[in-house]
Amino acid sequence: MTEQSAVSRPAATAPAARLEPDAIGAAQDTIIGMANAGPVVSVGLTMAALVAVTAYGSGPVILITAIPMLIIANAYRRLNMWNANCGASFEWVGRAINPYLGFMTGWLMIAGSLIGSVSGVVVLAPSVLAVFGSNASAKWPNVLIATGVSAVLLVIAIVGIRLTARTQVGLAAFEYGILIAFSIFVLIAVISHHPGTFPISRGWFTLSGIGGKGSAASGFLLAVFMYTGWDATIYVNEEVKHRRLNPGRAAMMAVFLLALIFTLGTVGLQGGVSPAKLQANATSAPVYVIQQLAGGGWAKVMALALALSVIAATLCGIVVIARIVYGMATRRVLPEFLATVSRRFSTPAAATLVVGLVLIAALWVYLLATSVQNAFSDLINVTGLLYAAFYVLTALATMVFYRRRVFSGARDALTLGLLPLAASGFLVWIVVKSLMNAPGVQRWSVVGVVIIGLILMLVARFGLRSPFFGLPRETASDNIEAEAARS
Asked: Among 45, 204, 288, 332, which is 20 to 30 Å from 345 by CA?
């Protein structure tokens, strides 16, 4: 009888694997947010265009754009105090406003991050080849380098968030140091009236630029694109120490530091050569400027910084998208196997592997199927709009979730109502201006992304039968900040 009882007793089930709590600190999380924005490659890709549209008034444009970004980052901070979840805005918008809108927010997060990662990796191989003085346009070297590096980064992302964070800190030390040092070097050359440089004038410090010929509106469009990605600090929140407090603080610190680096990098390098030469070498402007002032050897160092920036951003992209997918899969709006966590590495291994393979497949299609490159380029050009859209939705979720506080005091009315509303208005204006000026094919690209999201939403609702779509709306309790402080 004793034996029968022992046999019939149900076996104890092992607890489900989970992401590693308290794995990284606030400083490492800040670096992850900065790396996802890719400061060096962002400066490289936008500098010539930003200088052209602002007539050298890039500095004020970059600094002013930081203000709404800081406000949005504060909105992320306040919502993360409520619910520190990898799904972030997907979860917040869904539970504060509407589950269907929450799903679409999550889809925009995935689409924007994935397209942004592809856009970064395709410039990786040319940067690496430039370091070694090889033909940057050779097809198969581009494919092999991009694939090999992506595979290595995929392994790092699967192995763990600690290794990812340490890798990001090491890459940041090199790439930021190189950019800052060269920016100061070029700025000194400009101030010293080195032959071939373009002199500083009063127009550099105005929104209208030199001779009033700059367009602040066009500059804001590019500056918003530069900043996108800082929100990566939030998507690893379940693995950060004091997960309700530190990720939001890291987001705000990341935006602040990015503003300083973007301003120094752009203003420091933009006067290194004449306007005509800068625009003629727009695709590799920082490398060209250093080559003209310091020689080919130092230009390769600048190219190395660009390559390191792309590598850091790509690693962040894989980690971030995987955690967004994981967060959505735990709600069964995506296939449940994507919510699997590795017991050995404490990472969302299934989601990470799928994201990495999709990224590599997209790279192969882009680099080998030249007939679809234009379509990819159109998607890449609207990446900033996708980010702006879910930033706006997050700000709105903040206002709705904290709506009782907005009407309870002047401070909350400002920080949880008026400022998020103003920042949202700024970003909506950016989106509208962009769509008005964009070619028809880019507008259809945005429509295509939205339609795919709607189809996936219907699959999640009626195919996967996710209970997420039946969640009631929630509002902030009076003790939410106290609960966050105790966590």
From this structure: 332
Q: What percent of the chain has pLDDT over 70?
A: 92
Predicted pLDDT of residue 15:
59
The CATH number of the domain where 459 resides is what? 1.20.1740.10
CA 312 to chain CA centroid, Å, is: 11
Confidence at 7, pLDDT banded by 50, 70, 90: very low
Reported as type and span, the H/E element at residue 464 is none
The pLDDT > 90 percentage for the chain reads: 73
**Domain count across the chain:** 1
| Domain that residue 317 falls in | 21-471
What average pLDDT is seen over the chain? Answer: 90
pLDDT at 3: 42
Instruction: Please give the C-alpha separations between residue 387 and each of 72, 110, 421, 427, 454, in angstroms, as whole numbers.
Output: 12, 10, 17, 10, 18
Coil, strand, or helix at residue 258?
Answer: helix
Q: What is the mean pLDDT of residues 51-60?
A: 95
Query: Residue 61: inside a domain, yes or no?
Result: yes
Q: pTM for this structure?
A: 0.91
> Please, are residues 110 and 334 in contact by the beta-carbon 8 Å criterion?
no
3-state DSSP: the chain helix, strand, coil percent, rounded to 5?
75, 0, 20
Strand ranges in 211-329 using DSSP code E only, listed in sequence order: none
Q: Residue 6: inside a domain, yes or no?
A: no
Contact 416, 400 (CB under 8 A): no
Average pLDDT for 162-173:
94
Q: Which residues of 154-184 are buried (b: 16+ CB within 10 A; e: fewer)?
A: bebbbbbbebbbebbbebbebbbebbbebbe
* Cβ-proximal residues to 325 (8 Å cutoff; 6+ apart), any chain: 110, 334, 338, 348, 351, 354, 355
Residue 481 within any structural domain of the chain:
no
